[in-house]
Amino acid sequence: MKNIFVYIGSQGGESSNTLRFTNLILDRVLELTGKNVNINMYHPQNSHIKRCLGCTSCFNTGKCHLEGEDDLNKIKEKMLASDFIILGTPIYGANISGDMKIFFDRITYWMHLMRLAGKPAMALTTSTGNGVQFTLNYLNTAMSFLGLKTVEKFNANIFSPRQLDDDDFMKEEIDKYSQIIFEYLTGKKEVKSDDSLELIFSSMKKNIKMYESCPNYEFEFWKDNELFNKSTFQHLIESIPKQ
Ligand SMILES: Cc1cc2nc3c(=O)[nH]c(=O)nc-3n(C[C@H](O)[C@H](O)[C@H](O)COP(=O)(O)O)c2cc1C
In this structure, are residues 219 and 228 in contact, taking their beta carbons and an 8 Å threshold? Predict the structure, then answer.
C-alpha cells in the first residue's frame, strides 16, 4: 500500500484551517484510491518536536543530541517510507509558522544529503493573503534542498477573498490537487528534475567533495550512496528503486 506523509505546522488542532484544507484534499484522495493508501498525519497536537539545539552534531555525525527525546525519529522514518509528502502551514508574519520552522530546523542536515530525493511533494498554506508568494517560495526552496520535487504549491485564503469556505471554489481546487496526488501514487505521473534541483545537487556535490581529505558523516553518506557518481539529479532520481 502507498503512503502519504503529512506535517501541518499549526497549533490549531482539529480546528486548524490548514488541517481542514489538507483533509479535504486527502478525503478525495481516499475516494480516488478506494481507501487504498496510508496517511501518516503529524502536527503539534499529536506529536512533539523539540527545538534544534544548534550544536551541528547532525551535520558532522548524522546523530542528534535530542535523539529519542521526542517524536522526530518516528516522523523521519515515516517520511523515508512515504510515496508522497504534503507540508502545510498557516502563514504567520508573512512566513511559515514557528512550528513548521522547528520541523525544518531539525531536518536541515537532510538538506545537505537531499535525503528525500525523488519524492513528489505539495506545499499548502492558509492565510488572509499576505506574504503568500514569499512563503510558498520559501517552502519550495526548503523542500528542494531536501530533494523533494514540489509538484504543486497553493494557498487558500480564509477571507478577502473567502476561499476556504467557498465550496464551489474549493471543489475545483480539491479535485485538481487530489488528482495530481493520485497520479503520482499510481505511477501515471513520475517525478522529473528541474533547474533548481539540478543547481542544488551540483553545488552540494562540489561542497561535500571538499571533505574528502577529512571525511565527515555527509561525505560518507554521499560516498556510500554513490551520489558523487551521479552526473545529474535526474540521473540520481532514475537510479532510486521504486518502492
Ligand atoms: C500570529 C499570527 C500571524 C499571522 N500572520 C499572517 C500573515 O502574515 N499573513 C496572512 O496572510 N495571514 C496571517 N495570519 C492568519 C493565518 O495565516 C490564518 O488564520 C491561517 O488560516 C491560520 O491557520 P491554522 O488555523 O491552520 O493555524 C496570522 C495569524 C496569526 C495567529
Answer: no
Q: Residue 135 Cα, ligand 1 centroid: separation in angstroms?
A: 12
pLDDT of residue 186: 97
Range of the domain at 52: 2-192
Answer yes or no: are the C-beta atoms of 208 and 25 closer than 8 Å.
no
The C-alpha cell at 202 is 551540483
Number of structural domains, the chain? 1
Q: Cβ(12) to ligand 1 under 6 A?
A: yes
**Ligand 1: centre distance to CA 71 (Å):** 25
> What is the per-residue pLDDT across 138-151, written as a single tens digit (0 to 9) for each?
999 999 999 999 99
Is residue 234 in some structural domain?
no
* 11 Cα nearest atom in ligand 1: 27
Q: What is the pLDDT of residues 200-211, one digit of tens each?
A: 999 999 999 999
Q: Specify if 144 maps to a domain.
A: yes
User: 46 CB under 6 A from ligand 1?
Assistant: no
Q: Which residue in 34, 17, 9 sits closest to 182, CA to CA? A: 34
